[in-house]
């Protein structure tokens, strides 16, 4: 919800732009870190969800580490002051250059996804006279019941090491003198709202770590990844995810052995609700049996609806007319440039200000200049 001062400010500014509510970000982090403290868990924020400097600094100030999926994210995390001993680096396709950079940065762990990757990291580490700390990203073959493009833990997905590869992986680690195995890593998908998935994950992790212990391998760190979903339908009612239930399910289900550290990699659940894409209505166009509300924000600013069929709540902040249905679309020359179909909005006209909610994660970071459009600027609540 925005107050009248904010809405008045929005009307003065050039649109579209991202608006971040830093008070909500802090409230979210307060709740999240209270749970970390309660269970003595560690967290690494997934930079790919939102890498704006202001946001990174707040997250870092709460003591979170960084979860990176590219060499440039590792470099950004280090430059932004995240402690290298709290930086983890995942990804199925790490290039030699990226591996070198991360080795130079002395990060906590490479989360490795295949045998050939382990071999390359070993040989690069050896040529640099270093020992690389590696964790195995396991594919536990769990369906996260989320959109197929954001499921990552099923056997048909490209991510992780499947159980049938374990022996081969262990043989490789024993052979590679410049690798040190420090943990197991799991990340089964994103926008997971069915808590049973995490119950299942904990159970699978217990089975899998038992296999490693039975084979004489001590696992010091277990990283359960991110993936906790947010409420895209009712962001005003549920601005903060149910961290209490999430962590208590994990705590109840997971068998933790002596000396083990448990890690998480939250992305969306930290930053999604604090970000909104603010846009102006350019035209209302009468189509066949429907009305189009044409915004000045497009799929190049926020691609989630086009990419994942994501539904973001849309509010008209400046109209008080009676409710009507609109297809809310952007100006980009693609039919998939649509934020919503048959959306109920108060009667909408040119110049109205619309808010596309819950856009803080995988929004601005994915923006592009398609159609040679300018990139949207961002503003923070404390600036207005
Ligand atoms: C994207 C990603 C995350 C964060 O996922 P969210 O669903 O945003 O919490 C965590 N870990 C890894 C390895 C990722 O790729």
Summed up:
The chain has helices spanning 4-12, 22-39, 53-61, 71-79, 96-104, 115-127, 166-175, 196-214, 243-253, 268-271, 304-308; strands at 17-20, 42-46, 65-68, 87-89, 109-112, 132-137, 179-185, 221-223, 261-264, 275-287, 290-295, 314-316, 323-329, 338-346, 353-356, 377-380. It is an alpha/beta fold and 384 residues long.
Please tell me about this protein's structure.
The protein has two domains: 4-17 and 273-380, Lyase, Ornithine Decarboxylase, Chain A, domain 1 (Beta Barrel), CATH 2.40.37.10; 65-265, Alpha-Beta Barrel (TIM Barrel). Strand 3 (65-68), helix 4 (71-79) and strand 4 (87-89) form a beta-alpha-beta unit. The strands form two sheets. Strands 1, 10, 11, 12, 13, 14, 15 and 16 form an eight-stranded mixed beta sheet that branches. The protein has eleven helices and 16 strands. The two termini are 15 Å apart. The protein has 384 residues and is α/β, with parallel strands linked by helices. It is 30% helix and 22% strand. Helix 4 runs parallel beside helix 5 (96-104), helix 5 (96-104) packs across helix 6 and helix 8 packs parallel to helix 9. The structure holds pyridoxal-5'-phosphate.
Structural class: alpha/beta
Mean pLDDT: 96
End-to-end C-alpha gap:
15 Å
**CATH homologous superfamily of the largest domain, by name?**
Alanine racemase
Major sheet description: 8 strands, mixed
Radius of gyration computed on alpha carbons: 22 Å
CATH class of the largest domain: Alpha Beta
Give the H and E element order.
HEHEHEHEHEHEHEHEHEHEEHEEEEE
- Sheet-strand content, in percent, reads 15-25%
CATH topology of the largest domain: TIM Barrel
Helix content: 25-40%
CATH architecture grouping of the largest domain:
Alpha-Beta Barrel
Total beta strands: 16
Which segments are poorly predicted (pLDDT under 50) over 5 or more consecutive residues?
none
Shape: elongated
């Amino acid at each position: 919800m925005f107050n009248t001062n904010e809405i008045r400010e929005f009307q003065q500014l050039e649109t579209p732009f991202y608006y971040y509510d830093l008070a909500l970000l802090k409230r979210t982090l307060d709740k999240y870190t209270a749970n970390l403290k309660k269970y003595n868990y560690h967290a690494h924020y997934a930079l790919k969800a939102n890498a704006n400097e202001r946001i990174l600094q707040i997250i870092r100030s709460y003591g979170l580490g960084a979860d990176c999926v590219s060499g440039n994210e590792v470099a950004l995390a280090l430059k932004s002051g995240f402690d290298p001993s709290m930086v983890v680096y995942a990804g199925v396709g790490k290039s030699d250059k990226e591996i070198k950079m991360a080795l130079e940065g002395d990060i906590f762990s490479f989360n490795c996804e295949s045998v050939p990757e382990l071999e390359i990291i070993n040989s690069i580490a050896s040529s640099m006279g270093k020992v690389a700390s590696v964790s195995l990203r396991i594919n536990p073959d769990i369906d996260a019941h989320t959109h197929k493009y954001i499921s990552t833990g099923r056997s048909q997905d490209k991510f992780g090491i499947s159980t049938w590869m374990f022996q081969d992986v262990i043989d490789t680690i024993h052979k590679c003198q410049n690798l040190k195995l420090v943990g197991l890593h799991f990340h089964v998908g994103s926008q997971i709202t069915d808590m049973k998935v995490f119950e299942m994950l904990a159970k699978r992790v217990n089975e899998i770590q038992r296999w490693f212990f039975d084979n004489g391998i001590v696992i010091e760190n277990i990283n359960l990844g991110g993936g906790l979903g947010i409420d895209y339908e009712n962001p005003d009612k549920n601005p903060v995810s149910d961290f209490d239930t999430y962590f208590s399910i994990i705590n109840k289900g997971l068998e933790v052995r002596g000396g083990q550290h448990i890690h998480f990699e939250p992305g969306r659940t930290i930053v999604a609700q604090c970000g909104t894409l603010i846009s102006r209505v350019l035209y209302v166009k009468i189509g066949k049996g429907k009305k189009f509300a044409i915004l000045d924000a497009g799929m190049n600013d926020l691609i989630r609806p086009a990419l994942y069929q994501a539904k973001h709540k849309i509010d008209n902040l400046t109209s008080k007319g009676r409710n009507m249905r609109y297809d809310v679309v952007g100006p980009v020359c693609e039919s998939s440039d649509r934020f919503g179909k048959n959306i109920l909005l108060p009667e909408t006209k040119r110049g109205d200000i619309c808010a596309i909610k819950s856009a803080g994660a995988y929004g601005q970071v994915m923006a592009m200049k398609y159609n040679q459009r300018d990139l949207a600027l961002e503003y923070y609540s404390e600036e207005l």
